[in-house]
Amino acid sequence: MTRFTKMFAAVSGAVGIGLVGVSAFLTLPASTTQASTYEVAQINPDQMTRNAPRDLPSFEQNYQMHTGVLDTLRR
């Protein structure tokens, strides 16, 4: 490869990467807040909390259930 070919490849690669970066930057959606996300998705966190079951196992109980091998290491 000649010096011109290497330079042409480097410049065209840099231009290509630059164009992809600019197009990705320009097509990013506007940032949304958490409140607007709830409104769009029609999610009501308070209602989810009220409707959640009350008798779920604690994290420790659930963790111990799935890691029975580690029970022998418990003191």
Oligomer: single chain
Sequence of secondary-structure elements: HHHH
What would the principal axes of the Cα set say about the shape? Answer: elongated
Radius of gyration: 27 Å
* Spans where pLDDT lies below 50 across 5 or more residues: none
Structural class: mainly alpha
Q: Helical segment tally?
A: 4
Strand residue content: under 5%
**Largest beta sheet, briefly?**
none
Query: How many β-strand runs?
Result: 0
Bin the helical content.
Answer: 55-70%
Measured between the Cα atoms of the first and last residue, the distance is 69 Å
The residue-averaged pLDDT reads: 76
Task: Briefly summarize what is shown.
By secondary structure, the protein is mainly α. The chain has 4 helices and no strands.
Which key phrases capture this entry?
75 residues, mainly alpha
Describe what you observe in this structure:
The protein is mainly alpha-helical and 75 residues long. It has a domain at 1-25. It is 63% helix and 0% strand. It has four helices and no strands. The chain has helices at residues 3-26, 34-41, 45-51, 59-66. The protein is elongated, with a radius of gyration of 27 Å.
Write the layout of secondary structure elements.
Blueprint: H1 3-26, H2 34-41, H3 45-51, H4 59-66
